[in-house]
Amino acid sequence: MSLHEANPETILKAAALLKKGGLVAFPTETVYGLGADALNPAAVARIFEAKQRPFFDPLIVHVADRFQAAKIAEISEKASVLMEAFWPGPLTLVMKKKDGVPDLVTSGLPTVAVRVPSHPVALALIRAFGCPVAAPSANPFGFLSPTTAAHVEGALGSKVDMILNGGPCSTGVESTIVDVSGDVPVLLRPGGISVEDIEKISGPLGAALQNAGKPSAPGQLEQHYAPRTPLEILPVEKIFTDSRLEKAGVLLWKSPLKPFCFRALEVLSPEGSLNEAAQNLFAALHRLDGSGCDVILAEPVPEAGLGRAIMDRLRKAANAGRPQA
Ligand code: TXA
Ligand code: MG
């Protein structure tokens, strides 16, 4: 593994590694991705191996623009309108796939998930490589997503050929995933673009069928994004009176109104901005996880805007400690 500052020279080197079937971790505006040549099944298989990811969980394919997207997916009118509004950016569209996309990428589904990231390093890498890049978040399966190059190095360092460092991710939560392959666009995962903003363009989104643990609704796993330490979501008054507080890592949404004792404390956004909270979420969870606390007690955030994505990640982290239904 080698960690490199992203610059034109290292980006070209990374593109050459992708051409040879290598694995390159790179920054996007949401989280760091673990990239491989999307059209090379052997390279894609290495992603699953490095992440210990089950083969039923399909990957997002990253492209440089809509023209490259059109080579791998059928672009409907609905998809086109959303692309116009939100690409490049944190919106992934699930569309009918065209021939040539390996089954391994889509887990055998007739659809493929595609996005154009807005991070300049991600775009430069895809352009230098010239082909679509399959990239899940660069973390072991089920674990916290990485928002810095150091997170990737810590969790997957020995399994990656190169890590491009492009600084901390500005959005901080993964892309919103919308399935536009059917009549009504369906929200599969809340993320970096709010549902409110998408619905202004698309009209009301349908809700995904909850089918936990089953491959028919991939991305809908109920346990995910989890620190190694158990996490519970509690109203802030209950956190302050919890008997485990002295050994707890506390994740607050805004600045606390009174002092209290704790093992470790992270405040997502002192002034209460949901965008700032999303940006800080995974880094704060990584720090709490490393603090030696017995439990992480997390305050809920309002479920509007990026708050939906934050609560989705916190609930899945909380579920990770529980036996699956
Ligand atoms: O922001 C992001 O989306 C980041 C960065 C690296 O782009 N990527 C990311 O990938 O979050 P990953 O693999 O951690 O999550 C992708 C999700 C998976 O849960 C997968 O099940 C879903 O997208 N997905 C992929 N292809 C799909 C398909 N054809 N139908 C439904 N869901 C799909
Ligand atoms: Mg992921």
Please characterize this protein's 3D structure:
This protein is of the alpha/beta class. The protein is built from eleven helices and 15 strands. A hairpin with a 6-residue loop joins strand 2 (24-26) and strand 3 (33-37). It is globular. The model is unreliable at 211-217 (pLDDT under 50). Magnesium ion is lined by residues 136-137, 145.
Key words describing this protein structure:
alpha/beta; 11-stranded mixed beta sheet; 4-stranded parallel beta sheet; globular; binds threonylcarbamoyladenylate
User: Describe the biggest sheet?
Assistant: 11 strands, mixed
| Residue fraction in strands | 15-25%
Average of pLDDT: 93
Which bin fits the share of residues in helices?
A: 25-40%
Order of helices and strands: EHEEHEHHEHEHEHEEEHEEHEEHEH
- Separation of the first and last Cα atoms: 38 Å
| Apparent shape | globular
The total count of strands amounts to 15
**Which structural class is indicated by helix and strand composition?**
alpha/beta
